Amino acid sequence: MPKMKTKSSVKKRFKLTASGKVKAGQAGKRHMMIKRTNKFIRNARGTTILCDADARIIKKFMPYG
Question: Domains of the chain (ranges plus CATH)?
Fold first, then answer.
């Protein structure tokens, strides 16, 4: 059997943790930042862990992740 290919877009946007959870960058920080509160900007730093429903979808595109 041939190897399954990983989606390149998923490979660039998501990482898997050691326990198998999916890590992603925080959303909502690309533009229109002037109307965001300082609290929102502060809390949206770094990365976040996706919920199980979203993680299940992402894992389909990362067969060997």
Answer: 8-60 (4.10.410.60)
Cα–Cα separations (whole angstroms), residue 23 to 7, 16, 34: 16, 6, 27
Q: Which residue has the tokens 């059997």?
A: 1
* Residues 15-56: tens digit of each pLDDT: 999 999 999 999 999 999 999 999 999 999 999 999 999 999
Q: For the chain, what's the residue count? A: 65
- Dist. CA 29–CA 31, nearest whole Å: 6
Angle at 34 between CA 25 and CA 54, to 5 degrees: 25
